[in-house]
Each structure stands twice: as C-alpha cells, then as structure tokens.
Amino acid sequence: MTPTEMEARIVRYGDLQPCKTAFIDAHTPGSDQKENFTIIGGGVSESPDQHVHITIPHGFNIGAAGQPPRCRNSLHNHRTAEVFFVLKGRWRFFWGRWGDAGEVVLEEGDIFNIPTNTFRGFENIGTDYGMIMAILGGDDAGGGVIWAPQVIEDAKDHGLVLGDNGKLYDTKKGESLPEGVKPMPLLTEEELAKVDEPTPMQVIGGYVRRYNDLCAIASDAPAKVIGKQGVIRDRPGFEVDLITRASATDSKHSHDRPSVLMPVRGHWRVEWEGGAATLAPGDTMSVPENLAHSAVPSMTGEAALYHVIGTDDPAGATWKG
C-alpha cells in the first residue's frame, strides 16, 4: 500500500470536521457549544450535517466529542458499548435516570467502558477546550441514541424536535416533521424502570481504568484493557489495548480485520511494506486487514497509544459472563 493510499486512512487531529448540530440538545443552554466528530463508521449523529471521515466498516465506530469548559452532553443511553478515553482536559462523567446515581472524574489517558442500559452524560470541567475519543460497538452503533425524557422535552422548548425516524427538525428554521413522521416517543415509566442504575462502586471499580495504572501494566507487553483477557472484562465486539514505549516493538505483524491506532501521548512512526507515516496525539489511523505493520515511538519522551480491533463477539449489552 502506497503512502498516499494509507494517508486516506489517517484522520489528522487538525483535519477533524466538527458538527455542532449533531444531537437533540444542540440548542439547549449548557449543551449548545458541543462539537461532535464521526471519524470511522456511521456514528450516531442525528444531523445530516455530520461529516464521516472514513466509511470503511470495522465492526465498531470511532468518534469524538469536543467541548469548551462547563459544556455538557445530556443524559442518553446506547444499546451497544460506548467507550471513552480522555485526549485533552478533565472530564466529569455522570449516570442515572437524573444523572445523580454516581459520577467519576477522568484525566488525560484514562478510559471508561460505560455499561450499556445506563443513562450517561459528561461535561468538560477543565479550564480549556477538551476532547474525548469514543469507541462505539457495531457498524451501526446500535441504531442510535436513546435520550432521557427530560432531554427531549427541554430540546423542544428550544426549537429542536426528534422524529421517530431518528432525524432532527429545527422549528426555529421553519422545519416541521414530514408527513408520516411522528415525534420520537418518550420512554414510558415501565421502560424507564428497566434501565440500570449501577452504584459508583460497581461502575468505577469495574469499568474505569487510570492511564498511569495501565502504563505500569504495559511495561513488558501491551496492556489488555478491554476484552476477554482485559483488565476490564467485557466483550463488546471489539478489544482495546494500550501500547507504551516500553511495550512497543518494531517487529511487523498483521490482523485478519481492520484495526485502529489512536495515540494519546508522543509521536509514533508506523511502518509497512511500501511506506511509513507519523502519528501524533489526536490522530486516528485505520490499518487495513492483512497488512504487516509496526508502530514505535519516533521521539524521546512519554509515548502511548490505544489499539482497537473488532472481534466476533456480538456488539450487544455489557458482557457479564
């Protein structure tokens, strides 16, 4: 594969194209400055304005959220896995029907495999623009977002209506629901009663891992972060490893399906037969299946990257086996 062909599979941080109208809370005060990025796959955006950088199916989606300080992403749910790691800033994640069942603060490099069937939200509590990178299970990301009822009601007060076709309509722009499309129904009390509200101990102990702890594990070999043998024992349809300078090797290897490299610290030189490229934090690289490649730090200093690859496990609910 030529460098030009491979460059088409690299999304540089500086080339990311944001969407500011991706979700139903785009006009809601406190959430109206969010930027959503769909890097690999269709994502879960509700807006036709959303740009998709790489459409090649991987068995999972890669996205990102960028937010200024104190900007919040409203309470929502997914049918498949949603995994975040912090690229920039300091973030508070919260969960529960009203967002008060528990919370955890994540720093740069920390990773959070949010349990399915749980309402979750997050906000940037740092002092500058922050960015979190996201991995969503399945090629169709579980069919979209399930919003807490109050989010849909608040959004309507600010001009946005979500149709039962999963698309947004802005009444402030004179838009209305097309013929045959009804408003997205609110979850009933019976449906809400079936949504989990795990305790802080359950969530933080089972689904959050700190960057420094993972780096210590990755001193001899890549740290298995999420997967059958991961420190987070979940099987959401993909596996996540953390590779550091200490565990990187220049020996080339390949996979039978596409994989993704996402640096979180340092610069990384990726080599393959036919070329090489350098990745920086915030860049995302899709490595084709069966392409022998290697990835090693290209400069001195701290270096770490997350590696994601799909598995044959179904992209369904959080695995409890």
Keyphrases for this structure?
7-stranded mixed beta sheet; 321 residues; 6-stranded antiparallel beta sheet; mainly beta; 11% helix; Jelly Rolls; single chain; 23 strands
Protein described:
This protein is mostly beta strands. The protein folds into 2 domains: 15-208, Jelly Rolls (Sandwich); 211-310, Jelly Rolls (Sandwich). The protein is built from 5 helices and 23 strands. The protein has helices at residues 3-7, 149-157, 189-193, 200-207, 211-217, and strands at 10-11, 35-40, 52-54, 60-67, 72-77, 82-88, 91-95, 102-106, 111-114, 120-124, 130-137, 146-147, 160-162, 168-170, 208-209, 223-226, 238-244, 259-265, 268-272, 275-279, 284-287, 293-297, 304-310. Strand 7 and strand 8 (102-106) form a beta hairpin. The chain is globular. The mean pLDDT is 95.
What would you say about this model in short?
With 321 residues, the protein is mainly beta. The chain has five helices and 23 strands. It holds the Pfam family Cupin_2.
